[in-house]
Amino acid sequence: KYFFPFDSGSRSSKTFKPKKNIPEGSHQYELLKHAEATLGSGNLRQAVMLPEGEDLNEWIAVNTVDFFNQINMLYGTITEFCTETSCPVMSAGPRYEYHWADGTNIKKPIKCSAPKYIDYLMTWVQDQLDDETLFPSKIGVPFPKNFMSVAKTILKRLFRVYAHIYHQHFDSVMRLQEEAHLNTSFKHFIFFVQEFNLIDRRELAPLQELIEKLGSKDR
């Protein structure tokens, strides 16, 4: 179903972050299964809603991990087309350019190529997801007070990978016949962040027209 250009000779090997697994048998795993089942119904607006009686933080955590895995996979299919030469800056069309800073290792935003930026971004997200104090995997371990702001930052940054793929690599996506997969994943992502108001409208501007189009089809 998925096409992976696992070309050991390219620099792509580093960009593939290991899939973040949710432990089987855990409550979060049950939530993920619920999410997958409701997605199968085809109604995405309904699929993103908080299941009755569930903890909002946990629902956002499970979905954030899932989106990270989806984007990781989607970017993986076009990594050979996203190079230092083809994408010397991280952009989403001519009007939007992103500079990387994570606030700890790189405090002052740096201008870098798209593959470098996405590598920084995915590594940074992976580190957040692996941090048990931020994303507790054990039942009964509370989420930290700043969880929502951490999740919002992660989702805001993951959006930029979608934006880059749509603006700079959509022709490659179409050649690989991955557009339906990309559109479904992005639509799910957008409905989810809209449902819980997780990304500022200004941040979504690079794909505003697409977002409106996806939303209007679903009313």
From TrEMBL:
Please give the Gene Ontology molecular function terms for this protein.
kinase activity
- Which InterPro entries does the record match to this protein? MOB_kinase_act_fam (IPR005301), MOB_kinase_act_sf (IPR036703)
Q: Where is this region: Disordered?
A: 1-22
Pfam families annotated for this entry? Mob1_phocein
Matching SMART domains, A to Z? Mob1_phocein
Task: Specify which residues bind Zn(2+) according to the UniProt entry for this protein.
Answer: 82, 87, 164, 169
**Protein encoded by which gene:** Mob1a
Determine if Metal-binding is one of this entry's keywords.
yes
How is this protein named in the record? MOB1A kinase
Q: Which UniProt keywords apply?
A: Kinase, Metal-binding, Transferase, Zinc
**Which positions, given as ranges, span the membrane?**
none
Lineage, uppermost ranks: Eukaryota, Metazoa, Chordata, Craniata, Vertebrata
Per the UniProt record, the source organism is: Turnix velox
